[in-house]
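Before the break, one more example. Copy the sequence into your notebook; we will annotate it together after we see the structure.
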Amino acid sequence: MSKNEGSEMKLSSKAADILSQINSKTRLGDLRKIAKEIKKDHELAMELWSTEEFLPRLLAILIMDKKLLSHDVLDKLDQDMQNHTFDERNNLMDWLMANQLTKDKKTIALIESWESSPSALQRRTFWYYQARLRWTGQAPPDNTEDLLAAIEANIEQEEPEVQWAMNFIAGWIGVYDPKYRTRCIKLGEKTGLYKGEMVSKGCTPNYLPEFIAIEVNKRNKN
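Here is what the structure looks like once it is written out:
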């Protein structure tokens, strides 16, 4: 379905009213406020999703019913995201993971099954979720060795969105698990991923040797 076809779909008055509140100046916090008022409304979420627009889809994710997010539904959402730009589709999937998929045991189990998914977005989500389990500083799952071996074997051949998530978890493993720190630094030196990348003030570079050194130093000061 093209964007024009999606835009011509007949929307309910409720969906049209919500859409009228969203424009180019709308921020994520504004979407959260709207979602808080709506609460859970899966039917409305699917209407907003049908617009094929980025911000309405972010809002749709917030009001979806996680119990209705079956494997088939998630595959369809994934396919729809492919029509967005690189950054938008990654943001949509990350938003879906954070706000829905990590909130239910069934969808967490799906995430954990996506390491070898045909979908790059789903593989990205697998790795990003594993990173989330670690950056809180709590005891990580006992799969670190297997994850790191898989990253070392596959990261250089992966799609860019998956490479980022693999690199991200290698960074946090290097920060929180001294046993693997040197190995993670060497991985970054070998791949050269993000070396020399410019980052905004206050942000940590993604290049593993720099990322690990900066984040470890932060924690040593605390």
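The chain has a mean pLDDT of 92. DSSP finds 13 helices and no strands in the chain. Try to locate both features in your own notes.
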